[in-house]
Amino acid sequence: MSTRHPHWINGKPAEPATGAYLATINPATRQPGDEIAAGSVADADAAVAAASAAWQRWAAKSPADRSAVLHAIADLIAVHFDEFAALEKATTGKTDAQLKFEINASIDYFHYYGGVIRSFAGRVIEQGAGMHTYTRVEPYGVVAVITPWNLPLNQAARAVAPAIAVGNAVVLKPSEFTSPSTVLLGRLASQAGLPDGVLNVLLGTGPDAGAPLADHAEVRRIAFTGSVATGKYLAGEASKRMIPTTLELGGKSPIVVFADADLDRAAAAAVNGIQVNSGQVCSATTRLLVEASVHDEVVAKVVARIETLEPGTDFGPIITEPQYARVLAYLDWAAGEGLTPAVGGGAYSTGPGAEGFFIRPTLFAGVEWDSKLAQEEIFGPVLVSIPFIDEADALRIANSTEYGLVGAVWSGDVARGLRLAERIDAGQVAVNGGALTNETPFGGFKNSGYGREKGIEALHDYAQVKTVSLNLG
Ligand code: ADP
């Protein structure tokens, strides 16, 4: 039975002004699911008005009081773990393992920021005798958070936790494809003691709900995760009101494997890069750069691992129908060019994979570094391998796209790994499987965006600095 999800505004459900609802679909079965409010300008106005009225009182609370609410939200998400998993599964088709990872990380965002906010403060600036000068880290007020469909709850938690920890109020616009779990987050936040209006969930499409939210005069900061095109549009709109943005956009990240690396571990990491969420993560390492002398050996290891992957068990479907069509269009383009994948390629015609928007995990081996497959973000389980000659060649190819989100290096020579880490244009680089967690700042170079989510850096992004100076004379 399908449920209708209204907005969550000012601590309660809010029917859409137009009365209209949008359908969602389960990408693993293609069956229709819950409906979500079709937000419009009037709803965006109501959500921003609630946030505007709420943030100052929330910001005036002590960090310890705000911290207690964040921990309570984390605890309530944990209590409702199964409900979140069911809602997310119904709109994303994710595997149970992937859901467990994302929901646990979401819980942890609230615990983490609930912890660090108690030590977050400005600083005292020494100017010699007679002056007492210090900085304050103040909230912006109303922050618009616009999230995509690939990690719905997780992306919401990643932005909301630091934003409200600092004392902002948030209007959160989730993707119209995957909204129900975000509505539950809003409801539980209120139940956990977050004052009404501090977290509002506005539903609807990008143009109808997201655009009027981003354009609202009282929104003082925008945090956006999504496509480069929408990111550029929002940055343009924000510039008209001189408000800052955090933009977490696409990637075409390299995983660089030298001949002296542990090739089995490197191959496993390469497969993991397209298996996790079926490659629908902006940080996916989708270009496998391999030293030429071991290229074919690594490709064979990757192919062998990919051949064991089963749809529905080891990886989920493509989450939206338009994205499914986009990935298939890349594969069709490759076929038209006479490019044959070493493994995978295309949709499933029989079995569980055929029921939903599943794409076979795919590797195109030995592609040119400047080919379309090696340059454009596909956002699906598609890996390309590119042989390189030496370290300089590897670096040149690694940096040869418009993106700069993540890099991975595998080498038995650790100094070489760190040398590349210094030179790869990316917001974060992992050497020999180094981990990225909630504590590590995350964001892009180049067209992958700017600003940092996660880590203490995110608190700085959601705060503006004020200097106060007192003349003691
Ligand atoms: P994708 O192509 O991955 O769906 P989008 O950038 O289109 O990425 O969507 C990411 C988020 O941005 C979604 O919540 C979507 O509704 C929203 N969005 C899309 N277009 C706009 C817009 N013009 N203004 C504000 N939000 C938008």
Average of per-residue pLDDT values: 98
**What proportion of the residues is helical, as a percent range?**
40-55%
CATH top level assignment of the largest domain: Alpha Beta
Secondary structure tally: strands: 22
Number of helices: 16
SS class = alpha/beta
CATH topology of the largest domain: Aldehyde Dehydrogenase, Chain A, domain 1
The CATH homologous superfamily of the largest domain corresponds to: Aldehyde Dehydrogenase, Chain A, domain 1
What multimeric state do the chains show? single chain
Strand content: 15-25%
Coarse shape: globular
Q: Order of strands across the biggest sheet? A: 10-9-8-11-12-21
Radius of gyration: 23 Å
Named once each, the bound ligands are: adenosine-5'-diphosphate
CATH architecture assignment of the largest domain = 3-Layer(aba) Sandwich
The termini sit apart by 72 Å
Q: Main sheet, how many strands, which sense, barrel?
A: 6 strands, mixed
Ranges where pLDDT stays below 50 over 5 or more residues in a row are none
User: How many structural domains does the protein architecture include?
Assistant: 2
Structure description:
With 473 residues, this protein is of the alpha/beta class. It folds into 2 domains: 4-249 and 448-469, Aldehyde Dehydrogenase, Chain A, domain 1 (3-Layer(aba) Sandwich); 254-437, Aldehyde Dehydrogenase, Chain A, domain 2 (3-Layer(aba) Sandwich). 41% of the residues lie in helices and 22% in strands. It has 16 helices and 22 strands. It has helices at residues 41-60, 63-79, 81-92, 96-116, 152-166, 180-191, 206-214, 228-240, 263-275, 295-307, 321-336, 352-355, 372-375, 391-398, 414-423, 455-461; strands at residues 4-5, 7-9, 12-14, 21-26, 31-37, 124-125, 131-139, 142-146, 169-173, 199-201, 219-225, 245-248, 253-257, 285-291, 362-364, 382-388, 403-404, 406-410, 428-431, 445-446, 449-450, 463-471. A 6-stranded mixed sheet has the order 10-9-8-11-12-21, sandwiched between helices. α2 runs antiparallel to α5 (152-166), α3 packs across α4 (96-116) and α4 (96-116) packs parallel to α5 (152-166). It is globular, with a radius of gyration of 23 Å. It starts with a strand and ends with a strand. 52% of the residues are buried. The model has no long low-confidence stretch (mean pLDDT 98). The structure holds adenosine-5'-diphosphate. Adenosine-5'-diphosphate binds at residues 146-149, 173, 175-176, 205-207, 210-211, 214, 226-227, 230, 233.
